[in-house]
Records
---
Amino acid sequence: MSTKPFNDSAADDPTLLDYATRPVRPPVALDPAMDEADIPSDVRMELYERQQVLRQFEKRAYDLFMQNLVKGTSHLSLGMEAVSAGFGQAMQPDDYVFATYRGHAHTLSKGAPLGPVMAELLGRENGILQGKGGSMHLTSVEHNMMGSYAIIGAHLCIANGTAWSAQIRGTDQVTVAFFGDGATNIGAFHEALNFAVIWNLPIVFVCENNLYMEYTPSDLITAVEHPAADRASAYGLERIIVDGNDADAVYLSAQTALTKARRGAGPSLIEAVTYRHGGHSRADPGKYRPADEVEAWLDHDPIPIYHQRLLRLGVPEGDLATIQQSVAGRIDEATEFAKAGLPPDPALAMTDLWADGGSAWRN
C-alpha cells in the first residue's frame, strides 16, 4: 500500500493530497470456510443477537443525538459491531476490558445494561455513571469494563496494570485492550507492548483498524501497511490480521488469544480490519472518503454477512426476524428509561473525586 501522494500536483507537498482521488482500500475477502467453522449453533445465535443489539443501540443513539438529547458529541461503532461482539462472546465475565472513546459497543458487550448506558449518553442521573461520564467515558467497574479513554493510547499501559494484577493474584483473568489504528503511532502503544512481552502478561491488544485516524487515512502517515500487525514482530509477537466484519472470524481469533493468555503464554496483538459507516464523530460527515470505498465496505456490512451465513446454515428467517424484533423492543425500553431520568443533582459534582469517594484532599 503506497504512502506516496496520489496526484502529481501534490508530489512535493503531502499536505495537498486529494483524498477524493485516493485508491479504494477494499474489505478483507470473506472466508467461505467460516461457514464450516467449529462454532456451536447457540453461540452463533448469540453472536447474531449481540450484533443486533449493538447496531440498534447505535442507531438509536444517533437519533437521540439528532434530537439534541445526547449531551456532547458521540463516536458510533456502526459497521464495526463484529469486533466487540466476537470478543464479548469469547471473554469470561471477570475478564477486564479497556476501550477508546468509541466505547458504546464494548461497554454493552461486557454486560452493562442497555437502559443505564443509554441514560448516560443523555447525561441523566440514572445513567451508568450518574450522567457524569457521557458517551466518551463509559465505565462499569461492576462488569470489569474499566473505562473508555478519550486520550489516544492512554489506556494501553493502564491495561497492563490489570493484567499484572491478575498475574500476581494467580487468577485466570485476561485483559483485552481495544484501540484504533491511530494509536499505533503513539508512544504508549509501543511501551505497552514492550512491557506486556517482558512481563509475559495475560493481555490481548486489539487494534480496530477502520483505516482512518480521525480524518486522516492511516496509510498516508504510517510506514507499514498494517499499522498493528506489521509491528508485532518487533516485540516477538505473531502477526495476526482478522476480518473485523466477520463475527465468526473475530470470535475464533479471540478464543485463541484468550486461551493463550490464560495458560500463561503471554500477550497477543490482533489487528481487526473494519470500517465505520459514518464519520469520525457526529460532527464529521466523512466526505473525505472515496465514494467507491464507502460503497465497497457497505457491501461488507457485518450484520448482513452474518444473517446470510445463518440462513445458509439452516436457521429459519423467522427466527432471525424474531431476534431483531425482540432487540428493537429492548432498545425502546432502554430509551424510555433514559428519557425518564432526571438531570444529575449538582451535589454529585463533588463525589468520586478521591479514594473515599468525597472531595476532601488528604490534608
---
Amino acid sequence: MYLYDIICRNFDLYETGADTAVFLICVALCIIVPYLIGSINPSIIISRKKYNEDIRSYGSGNAGTTNTLRTYGKKMAALILVLDMLKAALAVFFGIFLLTRGIGGAIAAIFVVLGHMFPIYYKFKGGKGVACTAICILILSPVTFPIILAVFIVIAVLTRYVSLASIICAMLFPFLNHVFYVEQIDDKTVHTNPGITLAALLIGALVVFMHRDNMKRLMEGKESKFSFKKTDKHKVVDVSAEATSEQKIDLRKEKQYSDDDFVKCACGRIIPRSRAVCVYCGEKNPAYVPREDDKKGRKKRSK
C-alpha cells in the first residue's frame, strides 16, 4: 500500500475520477521534494562551516566524496559519503511511499541525482552524483547493485581511476538492470519495470555527462589516479620553482598565489603552502602557513 492508493480508497476517489488529480500531485511531489533534498550538499556546507572554504575551489572543483578525500582527508570523506547516501535514500523512499518503487521511487531517484548535480542553493554547481546514484541503484534494483559494486571496485583497484570506474558503472547500470532486474508483485515474479528502466537510462546518462572532463583527461593521459597508499606526511620540500605555469594557474583560480607559495607534497603534487591538507592525497601539509587574509578571517569569526 502506498499513500496515493490509500487516499483514493479511503475517499472513494477512483469512482469519482478525482484520483488523477491526486496522482499528478504525488508526481509533482516526487519531483520537487527529492530535487530540493538532493540540492542539499553536505560537502559544501561542511567545508564552509568548518573550514570557511568552498570545496569547489580546490582539487577537481567537484563537491563530492573523492574531492573531499583529497582536500580534507579520509574521515571527512567518509562523513560526506554517508550523508550523500542518506539524502538519496530519504528522497527515493519518499517517492516509494507516495507512488510505489516503479513510479515514485524512479522519479525521485532521477531528481535527487539532478539536485545533487545542479543544486538550486549553490548556483547549480554541485557534485557528480556517484554516491547518490549508488544508493538509488541499491533501492531500485537491489539485485543489480552487488554486480555494479564489484565492477566498480575491480576497475578502481586495477586502474586507480575512480572516474573511469564511475563512468563504466554508469553505462552498465541500464544494461545490467534490464538483464537482472527482478521484483515480486502479487506473488508473481516480474523481470522488467519500465519506470526503473527509464530511471536507469537517465541517471546513467547524467553521470557520464558529468564526467565529460574526466573522459577528456583520461584520453589525454592527464587524469589523476586515486592513491590507496598512505604517504609520508612529514616529507614535504619547497619546490615552488618546479611548479608548471599550468599548475599554478589552476591553483590560482579562486585565490591569488605567488610562485613562492608552493610546496611539493610527499605524493608528488604541487600544492599551495597555505593549504592545511593536500588536495590530492588527503594528508596534512607540515609546511602549512596560513595566508594573511585567512588569519584575518579567523580573527573576525572569533569575535
---
Amino acid sequence: MPNTRRRLFLQLGAYFLLTFLIAWGAWFPAFLHPDSFKLLSFGGLFAPALSAIVIVSVANGKQGVKKLLERYRILRFHTGWYFFAVLFVPLLFIIALLLSSAFFNTEFKNLMLAGSPAVVLISFSWLMFINSGEEVGWRGFALPRLQRLLKKPVYASLVLGIFWSAWHLPIYLVPGQSSIPLPLFFLFTIGLSFIYTVLFNKTSGSLVSVVLLHAGTDIMPRILNITLFSDRTWLIFGILIWISAIVLFVIFKNKSMVVEE
C-alpha cells in the first residue's frame, strides 16, 4: 500500500506540473501576442489530456492509454444522468437570473444572444470536442487517482477543484478575457468540481458524461450575454452550485463513489 500511495502521488504531481507547464507555456506568449499565437493558445486547452496521456504512457504503456480513453465507451448509464449533464448547469443559470431579478431588481435587457437552435447544437458539439482536452485529464486521469490517494471523494473534489481553478489564472492577466470576478470564479469552479465527481462516479467513470456537463456549462455564454451579469448574479450562481454539490453528496453518501483508475 505505501508503494501504491507513493506511485499515485508521483503520478499526480507530475501530471499537475506538466499540465500547468504546457498550458501556461502556450497561453502566456499567446496573450502577449494575440494576433500571432492563436493556434498556440488553442493548443493550451488540451494540456490536461496531453499530460494525462504522457504520464499514463510512461507508467503503463499503450495499454494504460487505451484504458484511459476507453472511458469514452462507457455509455450505458441511467438516462437521467444524460439529462442532468446537459441541463443542470443551464438550469442553475436561469434560477440565478430569476433570483437576481427578484431580490436585487436586476434588469437583463438584451440578455439573449442571437442564435438559432442549429447554431446552439453546433456550438455544443464543438464544445464537447474542446472540453475533451480538459476532461480526459481532470476527470479521466486525476480524479480516480485522487480518490484512491485521499480515500474520500469530498477531499479529491476539493483538491482537484483548486487545481482546476488555478489552471485558469492566466485568463485574468489580460483585461477583458473574463467577465467573472476572480474570487467568484474560484467559488463556483471549485463547487462544480464536486458535482463533476458525483456525475463521474454515478456513471461508472464515463468521460462522455463529464464532457456533456462541461459543454452544458460552457454553452450558456453562447446563449446568454454574461457580460451583463452583475457580481450579485455570479454570487447567487456560485451559492446555487455549492448548495447543489452539498445536496448531491448527501444524497449519495451511502453509495460507492470510488472509481478505480
---
Amino acid sequence: MARPWDGIISEEEQRAYNAAGFGRATGIGSRPALLIIDVQYRTVGSRPMPFWEAIKEYPTSCGDVAWQAVGNITTLLALFRKRGWPVLYPYVAPKLAFDAGRLSDKVPAIMNVAAKGYEFVEPIAPMEGDILLPKKHPSAFFGTPLASYLINLGADTLVVTGCSTSGCVRGSVVDAFAYNFRVLVPEDAVYDRSATSHAVNLFDMASKYADVMPTPHAIAALNAIG
C-alpha cells in the first residue's frame, strides 16, 4: 500500500526506522473516542477553493485539501454517531487582546480572524451531548480538561482528525501517546497547508506515536469492535 510519505521520506530512511523497530502497530481498544480538531471555517474556507484563493478569505485556511479531509471526517463521524461513541471537539477559541504572546508573534493573522471563521464546518458540526473543548495552544490536552473527560468516558483509544497535521494534530497525538492512550490517525482525515509537512508528520507519528492508515481501513478496524 502506497503511503503519503513515499517519495518524500527516502527508502533508505524508511529502512533505517524499520531496522530500529519503529512503526509497529499498537491496535485499537474497545472504547474509542473521536477528536475533531480545529475543523472551523478559518481552516477550510467557506467552500472548496485552491489554496491561494482560499487564503484571500481566511489567511489561516488550508484550501481544498481541507474539504477533502472533511469528507472523510464526515464518514467517521457517522460511524461514531451510529455506535453511540463519544465525539469531542477541541477547537481554537476566538482570540482576545490578552491572548497575544508567542503564538501571535509567530502567526499574527490568527489574532484577526472574523467571527464566522471560528464556527464549526456544517457537515461535521457538534450535536447535543458532544464535548466542546476551547483551547489556546496546539495540543488539545494543554490547559484543557480533555484527559479528565476521557477518563470519565472510559476511553482507551483516540481517533484523531482535523487540522493541522503538523501542528495541533501532531501535538495532540504526542500528548495522547504520553497519557498511554492508543491512537489512530486516519491519514486522509487530517490536513495541512503544506503537503510535505503533512507527509513527514504522518510518517513520524506512524513511526512513534500512532497507527496511521486511510479512512476505509480505520472504518474497518472500528467496525470490528464488538
